[in-house]
What we know:
CATH topology of the largest domain: Rossmann fold
Strand content: 5-15%
Helix content: 40-55%
Number of strands: 5
Distance between the termini: 22 Å
Strand order of the largest sheet: 2-1-3-4-5
Number of helices: 13
Radius of gyration: 20 Å
Amino acid sequence: MADHFLAGGYRRFAFYGDLAGIWVTRRREGFIGQVEAAGYRVQVTPLRGVAKDARALAQWLQQQEFPLAVMVVHDYAATAIVEACRAIGRRVPEDVAVVGVNNDDRVCEVISPPLSSVPLNLYRIGYEAAALLDQIIRKQEPAAWSILVPPGELIVRGSSGGIASADPQVRAAVQLIRDGLAEGITTKQVVARTGLTRQTLNHRFTQALGRSVAAELRRVRIERARQLLSGSDVPMPEVARQAGFSSARQLSETFHHEAGLTPTAYRQRIRPRGQPG
Length: 277
């Protein structure tokens, strides 16, 4: 999740959790660890249960610096952040980017803008729990009684789909990349549609995001491929097409270079055999 915010150019971060529990602590510490590893700090709200107190949440938000990227411990609380932003006149995602956890469609797709969220890997959790139960029934000593299951890939929606840049040309170019991904948009086409020279646009991208236009296109392609591999049974040629690669071979080579394993190996690691898409 932190990588998503960092890739969007955000440099101010906050964590909001309206509940207590070990799962809240782990989500908070995981987010803080990633942000601090990148050289930044996370503002953790001291508020608890304020999803029901819109005024308190709005007051806390007003004290922050913008643009701000907020990780929220679950989707319902994330909707409270979005509503608080609206109450104080802050735009989502232009001023405040928001990401929740659970990827509950009944929540994420109803609010405006739609909520980005990290899905729980429920099938993998069930798979591991069943395997552990089988060991217990067979009176075998489990290799571990506590099993950490990685979440699914972040589902990016409108609440965090922007970038933290005031440069309209950069914002427009990033939108071109996202909109044209499945059509195989190229760096050359992105540059041509902005009306700038490649050198100028690359300079603006470097200033805003710390990478070139080509690097951003490659990053978005890999991000889309991860989502398709972790959340569906779409065959590799179709993954390649939807993620903007010219072929399954190009997908495999690029993905392996960026992620350190092949698309097939990545899918098998994230989703146990037989898990429905």
